[in-house]
Structure formats: structure tokens, C-alpha cells
Amino acid sequence: MAKIRVKQVKSKINCPLTQKRTLEALGLRKLGQVVEHDATAAILGMVNKVKHLVSVEEAK
């Protein structure tokens, strides 16, 4: 399965609570933090929900 690397690039300060919880569910707690996940449908859906706060790239 493909892996993706997700990095938080914008602050969650003025975001709705659902987006804050989505970032925490992805494992992103701090600005600039990077996590690696499998590219499943659930993970891609969460990334799509907070796409304006994160950057995504394929992991090798």
C-alpha cells in the first residue's frame, strides 16, 4: 500500500472544532509536525477535510 507524508503548515487556532479533532486524529499536534500514514480511503478523507492546513507528499 502507498504511504503518504502529511505535514501541518498552518495553524489550527481559528478553525472549527471538527477540523482540530481531525488534525489530532491524524497525529498532528504541533505546527510543522510530520506524520506518515497508509493512503487508505479514511486517511485521504481526513486529509481532504483539512487540506488548507496541511501539505501532502508521497513517502518513499
UniProtKB/TrEMBL annotation:
<keyword id="KW-0687">Ribonucleoprotein</keyword>
<comment type="subunit">
    <text>Part of the 50S ribosomal subunit.</text>
</comment>
<keyword id="KW-0689">Ribosomal protein</keyword>
<comment type="similarity">
    <text>Belongs to the universal ribosomal protein uL30 family.</text>
</comment>
<dbReference type="Pfam" id="PF00327">
    <property type="entry name" value="Ribosomal_L30"/>
</dbReference>
<dbReference type="GO" id="GO:0006412">
    <property type="term" value="P:translation"/>
</dbReference>
<dbReference type="GO" id="GO:0022625">
    <property type="term" value="C:cytosolic large ribosomal subunit"/>
</dbReference>
<dbReference type="GO" id="GO:0003735">
    <property type="term" value="F:structural constituent of ribosome"/>
</dbReference>
<protein>
    <recommendedName>
        <fullName>Large ribosomal subunit protein uL30</fullName>
    </recommendedName>
</protein>
<feature type="domain" description="Large ribosomal subunit protein uL30-like ferredoxin-like fold">
    <location>
        <begin position="4"/>
        <end position="54"/>
    </location>
</feature>
<dbReference type="InterPro" id="IPR036919">
    <property type="entry name" value="Ribo_uL30_ferredoxin-like_sf"/>
</dbReference>
<dbReference type="InterPro" id="IPR016082">
    <property type="entry name" value="Ribosomal_uL30_ferredoxin-like"/>
</dbReference>
<dbReference type="InterPro" id="IPR005996">
    <property type="entry name" value="Ribosomal_uL30_bac-type"/>
</dbReference>
<dbReference type="InterPro" id="IPR018038">
    <property type="entry name" value="Ribosomal_uL30_CS"/>
</dbReference>
